Structure formats: structure tokens, C-alpha cells
Amino acid sequence: MDSKSWIVLLLLLAVSSATKSQESQDKGSSEVDTATLRTPPGLKAPKKLWWLKEITPEYHMAGRLSERQIKYIADGGFKSVISLFEDNEPDDLGGERLPTNDEAREVAKISGLQYAVVLDESDDWASVKAVEKLAKVLKTVNTPAVLHCNRGYTITFVTLMHMANLTRHDPKYTPRITSKNFYKITAAMGLDFTMDFTKAVVAEITGEPIVENPPKPDANPEEWYDYWLAHSVYKNWYTAGQISVSHLPIIKMAGFKSVVNMRQGVTMDGNPSQEAVTLLNVKDGTATYGDDKIGPRQIPFVLESLRTDPNRGNKYVSADSETNYEVTNPKEFGDEIGYSEELEKEIFEKDGMPYYHMPVATDGTYSPELFGKYKDQLLELGKKGPVLVHCASAKRVAYMSVLAAALQYDKDMRWALKRLRELGFEVSSTKKKDIYNMYQAWLDKENYNRTDKDEL
């Protein structure tokens, strides 16, 4: 065999090895610790409902809801809201009022949602009785449904135990929930149910022996779900969509040490670049500045054309609203154009909470260079404690934060792709190729450099 033939053979072996590595990584990433293959949070309104945790396409978990959040649920295409507890007293989240069950039921009615409560005040959430009561309620409501408690913790337990009970008694029921995968699913969500009393209930409902030494989440802080809206990535890394003014004191109380904002600023590369702000009864995903067919988004006649449901009454927005759609949203740092990063920065600076702006374009391509631009700063923040990284819908930050966590804790490509899928975002050698290449460049440099990256 001459020298040219040897070179060709070596190149073919290199390509084959890289391809096998990609296939192995893709296969590993498909083995996820979720009940079903998750989708990005939020159904039809991911920018409004980024905080939902999907168990199945029918059941999505949340903490105690504000009036605005209930209306966002309606905007997102959900049919029902289910409260685990009988909340007879109002509460607040950082100053934002949380309604009683009676008030929430009225908001749900105005929003076209069914509303139900599962437990009485005397009921124990960690019990067979709670599972039986939830099963009865679920028969009376339409799905998809948002199920909530105070912090999204207990409702996740009861919902998965309901599914485990069906698994035990119905051989045709899917997805199958056993004791073993219950602990894997909840650990992946950053929730710990390995206490003796919950382990006993799990065993009672599944009919299986108590699991010894079940997996526990590596979340730091352990009770991060005081700010239940966040998504636990790994250890001290968390993601979120657009936070609101009222969230800041809760973020601090939960133990986060810094906040990173990856939304576009008022300008980017010298051009106007404000992203859209979420508005009640206005569709997600609509452009801020308009185009040659439609004018700027926050002009009344444009908003009218973008309504989620034109037939909603004006009271859907507020008791004294003159329209059935919202025109501005200062609670989420909106101005007369759209979302303003400058308004958010100003609030953080006044509070003294460490805040960093690392913009990632909404329609840009991901690359090794893009992550490299922020890598050192992200990893330095990671050394200082829990980091909350947010954008509009928690998508951009999932791609960036999982990679940051992988680098900080020396995780490989398989782990990173698996973690993305568990958060609802699928990346592989054939899907989201630019993100896959970015991950491979930082986590699998040997295979990334073995073949021309444009061919990967």
C-alpha cells in the first residue's frame, strides 16, 4: 500500500471513530431520568411559563401561583389549575400578592380555566389518602393541567405517587413509575425525598421494598426551591426565564450569590435590540420592532392583532382595564418598546445583588467562541456559590449553563447532552448542530479536532 493509500485509510478511520463517538454520545443522552421525554417548559407560552416543571405532557408542576401566573397559564393553552392545599389566607412572593383559593378560582374562571383543590387542611400530603384524593380530582378536570403547592415540592411527590399507584395496579399504564425511577426523576429535578417517612410512603404505594441509599440531588443550596421558579441544573447552577421585580428578595433569601442575564440589551453591536416583554393576552414570540408587514409590537392596533384570545373580557387584564390585552409590563422590566435590560440592571444595582450581563442573541448561532467569550467569568462566579442564569424562556441559558457546570465539575459530553434533555432541550449530532459542536469543542476536543467541524 503506497503512502497516499495509508493517508486515506487513516482519515477514514478517524472519521469512523468520530462518528462512533457521536453515536455513543447521542445514545447516552437519550437515557434520561424523566418520566417521559420532556419538552421545553411552557407549552404554547414558554416566555410566560418558563417556570413550569413537566412530569408528563398532561401534568406540569409549580409553586403557589399569583394572579398573573394563573392568567399566563391560560395564555399558554392549559385547561386546568389544581391546588394541592386549601389556601384560605393570602400570601406573597417578594411583595407580589398570592391569592387565596377562592380568589384563585375566580381568576381561573375569568381566564377560562377549571380549578380544583385536592386536600383539606387536616390531610397529610405524604400519604395514600392524598394520592387517592388527587386521583379523584384528576378525573374531573381537563388536561393539560398545572398542579401546584407552595414550592412545587409536595405536589411533585403526590403526582408521581399517583402515577406509581397506577403503575402498580394497571399493567398497561405508561409511563411506568417504580420506586427506583421515582428517586432518579426527583433527584434530576433537584428535589430530595430520601427521608425515612417519604421512603416508607413510596414503598407502601409502589408495593416494593424500601429503597436503600436512593440517589439524592446535588443541589446547592439544598432548599433552592424557596425560589421554586428556577430550574436546577447541577450543584450550584440554576436557570430561569425572565425574572420579575418581586423575585429579587426571594432569590437572595434562597441563597443565590449572583444573577447572570443573557437577554439582549437595549442595543447590541450598535443596533436597537430590545426583546419583547410578556403581555397578558398577547402571543409569545412576536417581534419587538415589527417588519415590512406589521408595525412595532406595542402599538395598540398591532397588539390587537396579536391577541391570544380576542373574546376575553377586559377584566382578564384588570378590573379597570380599557382593553382585553396588556400594553406594558413594568413588573418584568418592560418599557414602551419591550424588555429593557437597563431597567433590570438598575434594580439590581440599587439592591447590591451581584449582577452580570452576558448577552446571547435570540437568533444567533452558538459556537465555541461564543461560550469562550464568557467562560472564565462564568466559572469564576461558579466558584463563589449558587448562580442563577436567566434569559427570556430559560432556553439560551440552559445551553450555556449546562456547559458551564460540565466544565466546572469535569463532566463529559454524554452527561451534558443527557442533562439538556432532562431540562427539555434536545441536542445531538443531528439536532441543534451548532450547539452540539460548541459542546464538543469544550468537552470532547479530541473528536472535535479529528474531523473538519463543519462535517460533524
TrEMBL record:
The keyword Signal applies. It comes from the Eukaryota. Keywords: Signal. Residues 1-21 form the signal peptide. InterPro entries: Prot-tyrosine_phosphatase-like (IPR029021). This is Uncharacterized protein. It comes from Pinctada imbricata.
